[in-house]
Structures are given as C-alpha cells and as structure tokens.
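Private note to self, pasted from the team thread so I don't lose it. Backbone tokens:
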C-alpha cells in the first residue's frame, strides 16, 4: 500500500532540497525536518495499550505504545532521516543496514548490518530518502524479514513509479510512505526530477 504524504510544509522543504543550489547544511536540515513531519503520519496506526496512572487530581487510564519501535536507516543516505524521527520517538532503537548501489548493474551491495536485540517483536520503520529501482529497499525489507520482523513500514522521501511497483510486488504487506511520487528514472537509474544523489548531498562527498 502506498501513501503519499502531501502537506504544505513538506512540499516547501522538499523544494528546498530539490534545488541544486541548496548546500549540504540546508539539505541535511530539511531532510531531518521532513523525516519528523512524515513520522507523525507513518505512526498513526501504531498499536497502544491501556496504562493506569494518577494525575495530580485523579486516577486515569491512559495509553502507551504497545511495542518497541526500531528505525532502520539504509546507509548512508537513510542516516539523514534518523534524528528527525528520534525527536518524536526518543525511545526508538536503531538497526543499521549498509548498502550501496553498483553503478553499472544498479544492484544493491550489502556491507553492514546490525540489529537491536528486540528487533523481531518491534514495529520496524525502514528509512531511505530515495526509492529509485527499488532494489535497495526490497533488499532491506528482505533482510528485516530474515531477522524476524513482523511489522514493517518503509519511509522514503522521493520515489519513482518503477521502484514503487517493484516494492509493492515484492512485499505487498509493507506499507510504503513517500513525500513525493516523481515521474521516472533516467538511463542511469536516477530519479527525474528527483534531487540528485542524496548520500553525496547529505555528506558533501561530491
Ligand atoms: O532504489 P535503488 O535503485 O536501489 O536506489 C536507491 C538507493 O540508492 C541510494 O543509495 P547509494 O547507493 O547512492 O548509497 P549511499 O546512500 O551510500 O550514497 C539511495 O540512498 C538508496 O539507498
Ligand atoms: O535519484 C537517485 C537515485 C538513487 N540514489 C539517489 O541518491 N538518487
Ligand atoms: Mg548515494
């Protein structure tokens, strides 16, 4: 299932990120802020349970999150969304997945993975700004499932139709959230109009 989170603040910040004249500092800041805005919608259906507390005035049955939340950034670019999400879910744990796309084959190559202990029982939120062919996201979901994850959401900023279709076909049980659905991929597998290479723009590596 695909949800495109359409909000004036997200459109405004994403346009700053798309602008080729935006530098590393503003690119990172806006990515972080959009991550925080998106997570409000992404977590709308997280399960809660009743909890008995006392207010200063009376007993009260409130609510707390029923399950742990694990944020799973796809390195490198996904790291740019973690702190904005952690601002809203400060108790979240982080699972790191390192992979890069081979520039010729466009296939993802995995170089790192590390999971928190409670990963299988947690609500897992995979984050990566870019969903291009979908190969990296599909591989990350495969890895999360292989480590026992039962409930997975995928949060990307910009997606290409090719990537959305591929993820929906490979993992129909995973809810996919985007801030924008773009037009297409170019012959090098980059999203058009997109925002360029997210990892390089976050970390200043080009
Ligand atoms: O949908 P796909 O076709 O798999 O492409 C998207 C992937 O490519 C980018 O990562 P990249 O390989 O540039 O690594 P980086 O984050 O280290 O820059 C991006 O952050 C995604 O992970
Ligand atoms: O447009 C794209 C495609 C893949 N990875 C990026 O960072 N940008
Ligand atoms: Mg990159």
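Design output:
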């Amino acid at each position: 299932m695909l949800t495109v989170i359409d909000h004036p603040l997200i459109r405004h910040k994403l346009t700053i990120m798309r602008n080729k004249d935006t530098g590393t500092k503003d690119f990172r800041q806006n990515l972080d802020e959009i991550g925080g805005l998106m997570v409000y919608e992404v977590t709308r259906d997280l399960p809660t349970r009743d909890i008995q507390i006392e207010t200063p005035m009376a007993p009260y049955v409130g609510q707390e999150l029923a399950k742990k939340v694990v944020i799973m950034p796809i390195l490198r670019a996904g790291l740019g969304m973690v702190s904005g999400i952690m601002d809203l879910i400060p108790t979240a744990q982080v699972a790191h997945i390192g992979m890069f796309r081979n520039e010729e084959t466009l296939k993802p190559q995995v170089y790192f993975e590390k999971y928190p202990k409670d990963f299988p029982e947690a609500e897992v939120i995979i984050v990566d700004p870019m969903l291009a062919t979908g190969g990296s996201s599909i591989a990350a979901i495969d890895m999360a499932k292989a480590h026992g994850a039962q409930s997975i959401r995928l949060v990307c900023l910009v997606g290409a139709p090719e990537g959305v279709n591929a993820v929906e076909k490979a993992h129909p049980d995973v809810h996919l959230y985007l801030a924008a659905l773009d037009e297409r991929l170019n012959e090098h597998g980059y999203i058009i109009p997109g925002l360029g290479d997210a990892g390089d723009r976050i970390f200043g590596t080009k």
